[in-house]
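In the current project phase, we have settled on a layout for protein records. One protein thus recorded is set out beneath this paragraph:
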Amino acid sequence: MATYLLDAPLPHGLPVILDTNVVLSLWMFEDPALVRLRAAVESGALRPFSREDCLGELARVLAYSQFAQPPERQAEIAATYRARCTLVEPVEPPVCELPNCLDRDDQKFLELARDSGARALLTRDKLVLKLGRRPVIAARFAILTPERLQALLPSTP
């Protein structure tokens, strides 16, 4: 894990990437264990970056029948998250090559973290978390669980 996240208090407006499952945890499931993390995004303490393909994946996943979200709720969650994001265009050619994620759908989040200058990619995906140990990634951004980043947030008074 990139040590710069652990060496000092987190700066306000810390640029981060939230993978789709983290977005779902925060805004669809409203995970009570991540209330401080959601508040940090909503207050601007954490500044999420995204791309159109990542937002498209979010829209597709929100529509999964197992989530039983009415179309209005799907649109509300997608719009709420989009409004909090700074959109980034893919960089061609890439600044550096990244290792390939075994799940090709997750590669875009690694690329987004690289191209946006984000300091952290939040995920619960074990394969993505494992990639965070690779030197080419660890030198640029941390890959950690949302619970781990939340633990690094200052406590509210």
